Amino acid sequence: MNSTLSMTELEDRVQRIFLRAGMNAMQAGPLARVISAGERDGCKSHGIYRIEGVLRTLKAGKVSGTAKPFAEGADNGAIVRVNAGGGFSNAAFELGLPVLADRARDLGLAAMVVNDCAHFAALWPEVEAVTAHGLAAMVMCPSYATVAPAGGTKPLLGTNPFAFGWPRQGQQPYVFDFATSVAARGEIELHRRAGKSLPEGWAIDADGQPTTDPEAALGGAMLPFGGHKGSAIGTMIELLAGVMIGDLTSPEVLDFLGTTTLAPFHGELVIALSPERFAAGRRGDPFARAELLFEAIQGQGARLPSQRRFAARARSQAEGVDLTQAELAQLDRFLALGLDAIA
After folding, report:
1. Is 46 among the catalytic positions?
2. Catalytic site includes residue 187
3. Quick check: is 119 catalytic?
4. 264 φ/ψ sector (left φ>0, alpha ψ -120 to 50, else beta)
5. Which residues form a coiled coil (predicted)?
6. Catalytic residue, candidates 45, 72, 276, 327
7. E strands, the chain, where?
8. 287-305 pLDDT, tens per residue?
9. CATH architecture of the domain with residue range 3-181+224-277+286-294+304-309+319-341
10. Which one is catalytic: 36, 46, 143, 268?
11. Contacts (Cβ under 8 Å, ≥6 apart) of 163
């Protein structure tokens, strides 16, 4: 039998788990919000499933639960720099977002560089946070080496997620968020836990042979989506959100951690753009013209990305978030034992 929690109850419970584990409120609050948002939107691979990995990374000493992110440089023009101080990226993002939005509105575009952070969450919460300021957004980050390049046989690239958002007046933004691998690594783990085979074309084993076995996939490599196209985009993200911002690339992250069981430690790049500033002096309102495009897409019977997630959000906001008894028991265990709950 499932139990239903309100979003406030779920956020409070998750935050108390992190505080119990020794985190400060600056770290625990943003983490609780993004994990609860995953559950709210029906994204189980980025919901409370992620708590265990957060606690494991904290216990291993590969992230600081008491870090206080700080801005670097008094004024870097279009570049906003935030150092996560060895903590999670979420707190650093929340710190830098107001400055990023102000700069983008003033200059037309701005970029926030987050350095020295652990990252475990989806990118759509950050994209949506930027679009709430009336700005378009692109967000990207590396991961650790778990994806073979197109034609390769060994892990080299990360799952390297990329997200985009466009603000819409009076309704949810246009948002997509996807890994440049065929699937997020969390999906492989969920298949393993459920005893389910993977779809063909998701992964190769340690010998570079195609596999549908989640265990073999976790010991081998995932594949990029779209073959050479996904491989090229994944490489672009290594360059822009790793090399260019002076942070770790996915192979370097794996060297640093020595395992894929912990949250990866690297940097993140957030780009915000003002449609009004870019369209200034040209014909038409950019937001109205975008709506014509969205209407044409839906007019053909196609679905805009994230619509299922937004529908799940509406249900959760109206009815609460359903958790199984096993999930609730795990939350209770984490709260009672803190880091001792992790082997």
Report:
1. yes
2. yes
3. no
4. beta
5. none
6. 45
7. 3-5, 70-72, 79-83, 109-118, 136-140, 162-166, 174-178, 203-204, 210-211, 221-222, 265-273, 321-323
8. 999 999 999 999 999 999 9
9. 2-Layer Sandwich (3.30)
10. 46
11. 122, 123, 124, 126, 127, 137, 138, 139, 140, 175, 176, 177, 178
